[in-house]
Structure formats: C-alpha cells, structure tokens
Amino acid sequence: MRPFKYTRAADTGTAMLAVSSNKDAKYIAGGTNLLDLMKEGVENPTELVDISRLNLSQIRTTATGLSLGALATNSDTANHPLVRRDYPLLTQAILAGASAQIRNMATNGGNLMQQTRCAYFYDIAMPCNKREMGSGCGALEGFNRNHAILGWNSNCVDVHPSDMCVALVALDATVYVQDSGGKARSIPFVDLYQPSADMSMSDTSLKHGELITSIELPKNSFASNSYYLKVRDRASYAFALVSVGAALELSGGKIKHVRVGMGGVAPKPWRAMEAEKMLIGKAPTEENFKAAADAEMKAAKPLKHNTFKIELSKRAMILALKRATGKA
Amino acid sequence: MASDTKVIGEGISRIDGLLKVTGAANYGMDWPIKNVSYAFIVKSTVAAGMITDIDTAAAEKTPGVIAVITHKNAPKAAAYDGMRGVGILQDPKINFYGQNVALVVAETFEQARFAARLIKVKYETAEAKVDFEKGAAAAVRPGNRNDALRGDFDAAFNSAEHKVDATYSTPIEHHHPMEPHSAIAVWEGENLTLYSATQVVGSVQRGAATAFGLKPDQVRVISPHVGGGFGSKGGAWTNVILAAMAAKAVNRPVKLAFTRQNMFNSVGLRQQNTQHLRVAATADGKMTALGHDTTQFVATTSEFAESCGVLSSMMYEVANSRIGYKTTAMNVIAPTFQRGPGESTGSFALESAIDEMAYALKMDPVEFRVKNEPTKDPSSGKPFSSRATVECLKRGAEMIGWKNRKQEPRQNRNGDNLVGYGVAIGSYPSRQSPTSTFLKLTRKGDDVTASVELAASDLGTGTNTIIAQTAAETLGLPMSKVAVKIGDSTLPPAAGSVGSIGAASFCNSVADACNQARIELQAKTDRKWIAAPTIGQLMEASNLNEYQTRVDARPSPDAQKYSSHAFNANFSEVWVNELTGVTRVHRHVAVTGAGRIMNAKTARSQVIGGCVWGIGMALTETSIIDARWGNFITRTFADYHIPVNLDVGSIEVAFIPEEDKFVNKLGIKGIGEVGIVGVAAAIANAVFNATGKRVRDLPITPDKLL
Amino acid sequence: MAFEENDLVTDAEQRMTADEEALLDELGIYGDSRRKFLGQLGGAGLGALVLNIVAEQKALAFNDSGSAYATPAIENSVTVTFNVNGVKKSLDLDSRMTLLDALRERLGLTGSKKGCDHGQCGACTVIVEGRRVLGCLTLTAQCDGRSVTTIEGLATGDQLHPIQTAFIKHDAFQCGFCTPGQICSAVALMQEAKNGDASYVTPSVRQKTGAMQLSDEEIRERMSGNLCRCGAYPNIVAAIREIHTGKATDPMAAATMEVHDATV
Q1: How far apart are CA B3 and CA B472, in angstroms?
Q2: CA distance, residue A126 to nearest chain C CA (Å)
Q3: How far is B429 from A202, CA to CA, in rounded Å?
Q4: Contact B577 C48 (CB under 8 A)
Q5: What separation in angstroms does the CA of B277 have from each of B282, B308, B567, B692?
Q6: Which chains contact B through at least 3 pairs of Cβ atoms less than 8 Å apart?
Q7: H or E segment at B116?
Q8: What is the pLDDT of residues A266-310, one digit of tens each?
Q9: Annotated catalytic residue B190
Q10: What does C228-248 look like in DSSP terms, one character per residue?
Q11: How far is B27 from chain C, CA to nearest CA, in Å?
C-alpha cells in the first residue's frame, strides 16, 4: 500500500473538491473493498478523502418511493423497517452478501462502486485489461469457472460481485450523484455500469470526483412476491456462482408485473429482460418459468469452465420465481 | 481424595481455555519485543528458471526501510531439510511460482509491505512442470517404492463375477491453519530465540541450528500456543529461517509472518491424486480382489507424497491385492503431511469404490463391509491390538437412523431436497514416540504441587489438559495442583503433535515420570504403610519439600508384535437441492474406537474438527493452478473455500469403549488424524444415495450435480 | 459495555489455594475478588497451568515494557484519539495503519488476530460503536473519536462475559486463534438479535419484530463471517445458543439441527 494523505471531509463540497482536484485521490467510506485492493496493490491512491461521516445516511420516503442514503450501511439498509416491509428483495439480497461484520462497515454507495473479484484482476502479477489495457484478459483463456456467460467481450469476462445491485437493477433503482461544481444528476440503475472502451478501472459511468449521494427505489407492488436466491460454492460468506432476484405482482392468476435480476453471470448486475418479456401476462407456472429462463439464456455464451452456469442460471431462475410466488 | 483425582477420560474443560477466551494466549506474533522491525516477503512470479537481476534501489530508498535481502546479500544459511528448505535466498534458482526471492525489513509493517512492491525481479525462465494432467500421463513408479502385491490380483480381478473399475480424483488442498506461519527472531550474540508456533518444537530448533551452524542449545524455540497446524507446522519452513536471517542482517529483532496469500506457496500442500480402484467380489459379497493405483505429484525439490493406498492394504480381508504408486515431479511448493495424510484421500477412493461394489451387488454397504472384515492385519499378518470397526458400524447405523436409508437412490425427499445416507470406514495407525518428562514436586505441609515439563505442543489438540489429567491422576493430586509447561525447546525433548502420536507419547511419558517419582520416594523410606501412601505422605516420610525426577520414555518393543490403529465409521445424511445441486451435510455421525480417551470433551471436539475437515474436502476445498504460469489462481480465502459455520450441520460423536493392553501402557491410540478419515467418502456415498449421481472428483460443487 | 449476570455455567465453583491467590496477586492480573470469576470456568477451572502460562509469558516476553510499542518515524502521520476498552488512547500513526495493526503493534492488544488481513476470515473482529467490524479493513484514522471494544475488554473486572464462559464450557475452540474474533462476533450478534435484525436465513424478513429467538441455523449463518479451521462450529453454536436462550445444555450432547431449507 503506497503512502497516502488522509483527510476527513467536513462536508460534501469539500470532499468533492478534494477528490476532483487530484486524479489519484479516492473517497473512502466503509473501505471494505478499497483497503483490500490497496493492500493488493491494485488500487494506489495518493489521497483518501474520508466521507464516512458526511450526512448522507438517511433512509426516507419520498413522493415517488424510498431514498437510501449513499452512506447508510448495508446492515442499516437491509434492516430498515421500510425496506423490509416494502422492498424485502433488497433486504434479502444485501443479507446474502459478505458477512455481518462487512455489512456493518460497507455503505450503499460503496457497494455500487465495488470492483470485480476476478482473481486475475486481484493479482497484479497477472494480465488484466481492466488494470492495464493491452495486458490481456487472464481469465479469457484461464480459469474462468466463476466468470461471465452474458454481456462479456474478449477484453474482459469478469462478473460484477454485488448481491445488493442485483436487487437494485431488478427494482428499477435510480442513482443520484453530484459533482464538485454542485451539479446533480440521476442515472437509471440499468445505465450505471458502462465499462468504458479503454477498460479503465471504473466500471461505472461516474466521472472522477462525482459522488453518489443516494439511491432511490420507486414504489412498487412486489413486496409480497419476491425472492433472492443465491447459489454458491459454500453455504455462506462466498460470492455467487449464480444469483437471481425475482419480484412479481400477480393479479387474477396472471403475472401483471415482473422483474428479474441476475448476479454472477455478467460484468454488470444483469436485468433479465427476455425472461421478463416471456412472463408478462402469463400464469405463474413452472412451465412458464422454465420458458422464461430458456429465453434469457439463449444469448448466453459460456467460457471454457463455466458452461454449467447456463443450466444453473435457468434452474436458479425457476426456483427463485417459484419461491417468490409461494410455490416452493 | 481418590475420587477427586480419577480424572483421566473426564470431559474437563481445557485448562488453557481462560487464556484463549480472553485474548491472553500468546501465539507466534503476539510477543511484545522491544526494538522490533518488520519483514515482508517478495515472491517469484515464475515457476522455474533463474533470477537474472533484482532491482532493489527504489525499495531501499523508501522511508523506514532498513535492509533489502536477496540471494546476492543474504547471510549464509544451510538448507537443513530437502523438503522444507527451499526459498532461503541462497541462490538464484527458482523451483516454483511463489518462491521467496527477497525480503524487506523496515521500521513498520506498512513500510515493509510498500517497499516490497517496488522490487523488480528479472528472470530467465525455464520450462515449468505445472500441468498435473500432462505430468500424470507420463508418471513413473518412484524408485524407492515397489508395488505391494498379495495373491494374484490380475487373475482374480479378470475372472471375477462382479467388478468395479473406477478412477477418483482429489485436488490440491491447503492446510490453512488460522494462524499463518510466522516467527519473531531475536539474536543475543550467537544465541537465537525464535518465537514461532510449531507442532514439533525440536524440529524448529534443529532446523534453525543447522541452517546457521549453531549447536541446538544455542537456539531456543518458544511456542506455548499454536494457532492450528494440521501438518503444515510439523517442521521449520522458510518463515523461521528468513526471520532469523533478517534479524542477523539488521542486528535487531525481526517479526515476519506469511500473508494469507503467501500461505498458498510457502508451507506445503496436499498433492493432487488420481486413484484407480479395482474391486472384485462374489455375488454373495465376498471381496476377491482389490487394486489401488495412485498417480500423484511430488515437488521437483522433494520426493514426498501421501500414501493413498495404505488403507487398501489392511481394511478388508481380500486374498488378492495390488497397491501401486506413480509420481510426476512438478514445480510447486513441496507436498507435505496434511490431516489424515494418505488415509483421508485414500479412503475417499477406497470407500467410494466399496460403496459402488455394494450397490452393484444390491447389498447394504454396512453389511458388505462387515462381511469383509479381516481377523488380522492382512498387510502384515499381525494381530490387531484391537479393532472396533464392526462396533463402530453398528453404533453409527443406530445413531444416524440407517434404517431410513433406501437402497436405491432418489427415494428420500424433503421439500426441494433429495435426502441420502452414506457410510464409510477408516483407520489411522497408533504409535508412540520417545518423549522425556521432567517432574518437579513441591510440598508445603500437606499441600503438594507438581510441575510437569516437556517440549510438547498444543495446537488445539488439548495437550495441556490431558497432560494435567494424567499427572493429577497418577500422582493422586487435584488438577489445580498440576502445572504444565510445554512449547519451549529448553524443556526435555518430546514427540511432536503430528501423526496422532502426541497423546500416547506425552501421556505415557508423564505417567512414567509420576510413577517413577512414587517408586523413588518409596525407596527412600522404610516406613510401613497400612494404606497406599499419598505422594505428600511419601515426601513427608523422607522429610522432603522438593523432589524432582526425569524419565526418557520409549515405546515398548512388544508393541511391534501388533498392528495398532484407531478405527472409525462415518455416517452422513446429506440434503441435495434437486434444482441447484447444492449439497448440505444435514447430519453426520462419527463413531471411533481409539483406545483410551483421555478427555471426553476435547476428544469429541477433535473428531468434530475432523468431520468439518471432511466436509471441506468433500464439498468446498480446491486449489487451482493456472498452468500458463504455475501460480495458484485460488490465492485468497475468498477463492479457497474452507467451510463456514453454515456449512456444518449436526455432528454427533461417539467412542467405542476400548481397553487396548498392547498399543502402549495407557492404551492410547490417538484421534487427531483418524477423525477426517472416511468423512468425504461417507458424504460422497450419501450424495449418490440422494441423487443417483456418483461424483468421483472432489469437491462436490453444485455444478457436478446438475 | 454492560453485560447481564449469567449463572448458567457457574455450577462448578472453584476454590483457589492460598498459593494461587498469592500468585494472582503477584501477577496482578485479575483484581481482588476472583472466586466468582473462577467459578465461571466450569469443569476443572483454573489450574496451576493458567497461572503458570501467564507467568511464563511475562517472563518470556523479551523486555516486556511499554516501550516495546515505540513510535517510529511516520509519513502521512495522523493523530487519532479514541476509546479502547474504556480507556482513552491517543496515537500518532501512519495513515496506512489499520485498526488491527494499531491494536496489535501500538497498543499491545494482541488478542485480535491477523488471519488473512483482507476481510476474508473474521479473526480480527472487534466491536466499534457497538457493532462488530473487521479491524483489518478499518483504517485507524477512521476511528478518531470512536469507541472500540476488543476481546481484552469484554470481561467486566473479574467477571468474564457470559459468552466467554460458555465458550470454555462448550469447548468452542481448539487452537484458539480465531476465538477472540468469534467471541466479539457472538457478543455483537446477541445485540443484533435483540434488535430484531434479519439474516439471509430468516424465513420472513418483511415484518420487523422485536427481539428474535434465533434458531441454530440463524446462529450458523450469523457466525459464518468467522472462519474456524479447527472446525469448532457445532460447539460455537452450542455456546451461543446457551447464552442466547438462557437454557443450559450439556456440552457433550449431540448438536441439534432444525429442519431447514430456505437457502437453496
């Protein structure tokens, strides 16, 4: 870990100014991913601006839904009474990730900004286009059991590691950011992850110095029919092989609205649009779930070691949909 | 009085427990050492070749750096043991990916870690042997090892009515004790003190002495608490030598710990194995042939590999058998002993094949095993000193509810899950090794206290507690009157806590010392006793306030007349999610016949630990080499999955009461190793019973059951 | 931190000899009134071994003085004033120094362990502002003004925390290296249960109720951030269950497991 200057920002303006004015500066809040990467030598900031005490941790209702402060911890978010009552998919997804200790530290904004857990990315002795464009993708021809089957290209086959983000993409969240000039903008969650052409370290469409201030969840009627299913190599404290967040609104024995998010399959939290299309207006039956899963996986392209993820994704989707609709 | 001191076997809480729950127990890196400096290791990024250049300039200029040590400037040290001596910076040769190539010593840990990143190493690479599949195809029988043949295997197998012919594979596994290997080295003139946790105090002392050309008594090893070892802390690895070397170079105490990432290529591993099993039997379930051929790798720098076929030589009555090995050398850190070395991986193959045979014969696998139970050790012809396999099977079957098992797979369900039951048996040899004990008795009036001292180690096995129990009972003193001193090389030499020899070696020696003290004290007085005198009365009779004695205990030569092993049976109930293929061990039962159990509580814990290791072996653990570079691509605890709490269901443990008069005086067989033997096979067999899928390559991850 | 009186594991009251009393006095470890403390140990209790080891550790420590934790020359120095186990501490330290390293290398609180240094094992778990966190992924600089409790701070005077006592009774460790982290984690877990916090295996998360009665499966999931390579998990669950439910159980009894399959 290279030496860095540590400052604690008194307010968001100071924080954004500090980071904006140093291209090697970074924000630190929970630090659970950043410090890990700094110890590995993957991240090498010269300055850390501590934003953990800024006033951005409220969780509150808005006219259109629920606003989650960027600095609310994952634990506080998962266990907030309004989240549990109205967005249980988010609660389950957060609680499926990491460990209680890490969820107590990690913040919502940090969860969105976390890096892939690809072993080739983490080991600076290995080639990785994300760390250094042109060095090659170690995983493409390497050990890629944990890697993507959807949405990848030959520059990078990583998967986004977050569970929380699978719920957020399914629930149509919006991300609110600000820059040091005081300019605020909002980004639909599905557009947040846009690995840039030059494969820089950032996966997101955020510019250097921009700060996530909150995440908003629109109102929905999914609370009584949702489920987050995570399949992994051990029972807990492991990243997903495949995860599925399913949320449905049923009416008259038919699926009125449906959202399906997937984790462990793509470089970004995956919205299973093809599956959703297949399900709208249909009865919530196992056959229809299967057809939806098949439809989503038509575009899947496996790598050498992860062909199983196609079948596993289908089955996980079927099981998540069954559990969301009380059929399992 | 007597009833207070009948403590051997009692489930007494560990006497070092208070230190461990309060954080007061000092492990290798916990000692407060004045003026200490911190070392950080740089490791090779090629698997074979030579270092052509190391640029240390930038690192040396970094604030806080005291020294950068490479093969160019390292103090001379002798490799003291072919297996564990690679990577002590004596030459530019690279033998495996992740070999130590440089060491930075700085004022603080942060400074050392950062400076280590700045070191640039250039290599001339050589072709590395890092692809096991490739190497296995050309593996050869090791020169020091003949095939073990009995009867005419080929004829019996070829002509058999019922056969199983299957190949099983187990991956590289890492020990990963929670305490990474470390050392704090302090030189005072030509005397070296090493604070370093080890399973074998004497081996670290000898290793360091040899490395630096010292007499053993110039090296003191202090290791009162060991944060797990499982075989990997059986000898001195490079952490010990590098810390001492660095301390010498900077003329200051040095603290050095391997990082968790370092642990993958610094302290050994369990090698990958392919095991070809051939079993033949008659229609009524009598085994007629058993073949067990293992292909495995060794390091280019060492010839060690575990003996996977050893159980096949002695678990079953079978007239015709062959046990063979082939090895291929690879550029990896040396394989070394890992919990149940040979028996654990070997039993996965053997006991899976036995299960396959029983299924092919439509026989209950418990019954099949009982039917092929030998009356003496088939490998040596010696009688067993005792063997509880059949009792273990019977008791375990009752405990797990074996009657609920269906012979055909996929017949038991619970919700989304297929439920299955599996069984496997196993064993591990019982041995006693030379161990000396110093006993000091102190009397104040009627009050006698004992100090028992030997260079044993306690890596969570309960050594401290069972030594105290042995001394208390043998001397007729309450536990609270016994002090135990272990984990220090200045104490009388003792066996290591390895290979399940610890309990038998330590406790027999301690009991001998206590008995000897009584005999010697009795000889000092001609007082006549109506009842057997207490140790205090004996001391008082000779007007002694202090008495000390020492024994050098050796195993009895008579023990060689018997084949002595601990035996067990494992039963597992697994639930497999039919859709996702996720397997959970819902219940697991382990029944063991291990002679005298010294402490029912710590013994139970050790067997539970063995079961958890077996769960890891069966379901989660694997280390993967990327053959393009020879590195472990599973290089952190996020990639190498040791089981977490939620992976472990209910574990029930029972011991078959056994009084073994032949194995050693106290009848102790040891339980650390046998606890894992058979566990993975029982789970894999249960997975077959649940799903109808026979998984022959571990671990059984969800993808293998889709 | 305040802990409830717990008498579940005090059945085997131990009495010390005058010698032991004297030795404890000499070592000055545990304060004056020790009977209750020793009584909590259950089973054999505090033998001469413990006293011996503590004495030995003190003797073996090469120049055991406060100056073992000297302040080296530091770049990017940050001054941190925080409360550690009820005592105010002020340190000038390298901005890179994690809370774990500050506790171990600067404050001599070596109970918290470095098992991986990357947030993947839980051995460094400590309690900051009442919540369990990982010392290895916390910059000390971020703890300015905070209150930190480590394994060394869980006992109240001469009384062990009930979880510590239960860990001894149920043999919830072997090598003991992960134990400080396990215990800190378990202590915080009890509060999380009181708060009604859900976990991934909570059958229904929608209703946030009051204090939760945790099943074994819940305890297992909530303790899954603390690896134990010796495999003491069933005993860890038994120890936590005993204190959580208030029902004393036989440490030798088979673990129970509720039928459960919410996971996958």
Answers
A1: 11
A2: 19
A3: 56
A4: no
A5: 17, 11, 22, 20
A6: A, C
A7: helix B109-117
A8: 999 999 999 999 999 999 999 999 999 999 999 999 999 999 999
A9: no
A10: -TT--HHHHHHHHHHHHH---
A11: 8
For residues A302 and B444, give the distance between their C-alpha atoms in angstroms, rounded to a whole number.
78
Answer yes or no: are the C-beta atoms of A142 and A249 closer than 8 Å.
no
Which pairing describes strands B482-485 and B583-593: parallel, antiparallel, or unpaired?
unpaired
Task: Enumerate residues 6+ apart whose C-beta is below 8 A from A57.
Answer: A69, A70, A71, A72, A73, A76, A107
Whether ipTM tops 0.95, in short, is yes
Q: Quick check: C131 contacting A, CB < 8 Å?
A: yes
Cβ contacts of residue B453 below 8 Å, gap of 6+? B437, B438, B439, B440, B484, B485, B486, B491, B492
Q: Sign of the C-alpha dihedral, residues B678, B679, B684, B687?
A: positive
Rounded Cα–Cα distance for residues B157 and B268 (Å): 37
Angstrom distance (rounded) from CA A228 to CA A247: 9
Burial class (CB in 10 A: 0-12, 13-18, 19+), C162: buried
Is B619's Cβ below 8 Å from some Cβ in A? yes
Q: What is the DSSP code string of B498-529?
A: -TT-HHHHHHHHHHHHHHHHHHHHHHT-----
User: What H or E segment, with its residue span, contains residue A175?
Assistant: strand A174-178
Three-class secondary structure of residue C21 per DSSP: helix
Give the nearest partner residue to C132 out of A78, A101, A235, using CB atoms: A101
CA B402, B408, B409, B414 torsion-angle sign: negative
The CA distance from A65 to B77, in Å, is 69
- Nearest-angstrom CA–CA distance, C171 and C239: 8
Cis omega (within 30 of 0) for bond into A88:
no
Inter-residue contact A187 to A203 (CB < 8 Å)? no
Per DSSP, A52 falls in state T
Which of B80, B75, B84 minimizes the C-alpha distance to B105? Answer: B75
Give contacts of A319 with chain B, Cβ < 8 Å.
416, 577, 579-580
Read off the amino acid at residue C205: V
Torsions phi, psi of B657, nearest 5?
Answer: -60, 130
pLDDT in tens, chain A (328 residues): 999 999 999 999 999 999 999 999 999 999 999 999 999 999 999 999 999 999 999 999 999 999 999 999 999 999 999 999 999 999 999 999 999 999 999 999 999 999 999 999 999 999 999 999 999 999 999 999 999 999 999 999 999 999 999 999 999 999 999 998 989 999 999 999 986 666 677 788 899 999 999 999 999 999 999 999 999 999 999 999 999 999 999 999 999 999 999 999 999 999 999 999 999 999 999 999 999 999 999 999 999 999 999 999 999 999 999 999 998 7
Chain B partners of A122 at a C-beta cutoff of 8 Å?
635-636
Each residue's pLDDT tens digit, B351-407: 999 999 999 999 999 999 999 999 999 999 999 999 999 999 999 999 999 999 999
Measured between CA atoms, the residue of chain C closest to residue A230 is C264
Residues of A whose CB is below 8 A from B45: 125
Tokens of B331: 């550029």
Q: How many helices (H) and strands (E) does chain C have?
A: 8, 5
Among C174, C187, C226, C252, which would you mutate to test the B interface (most chain B Cβ atoms within 10 Å of its Cβ)?
Answer: C174
| C-alpha distance from C258 to closest chain A C-alpha (Å) | 16
Strand partners, B483: B451
Q: What is the pTM of this model?
A: 0.95
* Candidates C198, C263, C264; nearest CB to A91: C198
Q: B702 with B581: CB under 8 angstroms? A: yes
Out of B173, B179, B306, B673, pick the active-site residue: B673
Q: Please state, in angstroms and rounded to a whole number, the distance separating the CA atoms of residues B428 and B564.
A: 9
Q: How far is C234 from chain A (nearest CA, A)?
A: 15
